Amino acid sequence: MFCHVLNWHGAVKSMAPDSDKRNFALREDGDESSVFSGGTPRQAALKAARRLEPADGEEQADPEEIRLREKGTHKVHIYEAWAWVEEAPDDKPDWMPGDITKGNVSKQGVEHLDEI
Which stretches does the entry tag as region Disordered (predicted)? Predict the structure, then answer.
């Protein structure tokens, strides 16, 4: 099920409602410490990437491997992730700080666990 909304360009965009969000557990040494939600594994990975120690710029950021297990499955999505700090845009809302953390990811593959 999808709902249609207008994006900021005025084009119609299909979006999954919140009920279509999936949960992904961040795996570190077999422990699942945090859960990130998103309609896709990449959305969850981008949220997780922003929790990494940020570099001073994207070019200086060192990629780190992150592993996200989709809850309810044995699938582990593997990404290279990096984060950096940059100045917030001029039209930022009043509550937003002057510097913000941004992140990016690159999918490396999927593993299937025998057991969780």
Answer: 29-64, 93-116
User: pLDDT tens for residues 58-112?
Assistant: 999 999 999 999 999 999 999 999 999 999 999 999 999 999 999 999 999 999 9
Does residue 77 contact residue 66 with C-beta atoms inside 8 Å? Answer: no
Q: In the 8-state DSSP scheme, what is residue 72?
A: T
Q: What is the CA radius of gyration of the chain?
A: 16
How many CB atoms are located within 10 Å of the residue 32 CB? 15
Give buried/exposed letters for 94-106 (b at 16+ CB in 10 A, else e): eeeeeeebebbbe
Half-sphere exposure for 107 (CA within 13 Å, toward CB): 11
Classify residue 55 by its DSSP letter: B
